[in-house]
Write a structure and sequence with these properties.
207 residues, Rossmann fold, two-stranded antiparallel sheet, 39% helix, 20% strand
Length: 207
């Protein structure tokens, strides 16, 4: 049985990871594999500008999506892959990798998951998590300060310089490709339950 691959897209701080974790919680990690698109960021040494403050991490060109697509294709055909690990504090890939084994459901989560056609074609179900801009900004502030060691000023500057413009240019338009749109962010438990029910039905129909 080939895995069912679900793409989960949406703006930074919209609740994509919350949704993915809820799916894993309900269906168990034995069945669900989470692949995060942002671990495929190019190493800082391969960027045209070595200053991380000048890099647009919300642009599709900042990600090695071709490698992500290759990994998904291999997982879909029962092959094991070695996923890169990205260190957000140094903006470089770690030397070690993460081995991934195929599972019945593969979640691909990231802000730009529905932007690239090559990635969309690998997806059996496309989900867009929608949330208000102020909620997304507050969540991003909390995450970048507490998890990634950023300052309020640096997060604010990046938001106005790249995050908001790239959302409007790439992410918001990618909503048109979604099969399911979840309003009010990752805390929308009613929509979550509908999606999880759909996945259970698809699993049952393939057995």
């Amino acid at each position: 049985m080939q895995p069912i691959i679900i793409g989960i897209a949406g703006g930074s701080g919209s609740g994509k990871t919350t949704l993915a974790n809820r799916i894993i919680e309900k269906l168990t990690s034995d069945i669900v594999l989470l692949v995060q698109h942002d671990v495929y960021y190019y190493d800082l040494s391969l960027m045209p500008d070595p200053n991380p403050a000048n890099i647009n991490y919300d642009h599709p060109n900042s990600l090695e999506t071709k490698l992500c697509v290759d990994h998904l294709h291999k997982l879909q055909h029962g092959e094991r892959v070695q996923q890169p690990l990205y260190d957000f504090s140094t903006h470089k890939r770690r030397r070690e990798t993460r081995p991934l084994e195929p599972k019945p459901i593969i979640l691909v989560e990231g802000i730009l998951v529905l932007v690239e056609e090559s990635l969309r074609t690998e997806l059996d179900l496309k989900v867009f998590v929608d949330a208000e801009p102020d909620i997304r900004l507050l969540r991003r502030l909390e995450r970048d300060i507490t998890v990634r060691g950023r300052t309020v000023q640096s997060v604010r500057d990046q938001y106005y310089a790249t995050v908001r413009p790239m959302y409007e240019k790439f992410i918001a338009p990618s909503k048109q490709y979604a099969d399911i749109i979840i309003p009010h962010g990752g805390e929308n438990t009613v929509a979550q339950d509908v999606l999880i029910g759909t996945l259970k039905h698809r699993l049952a129909s393939t057995q």
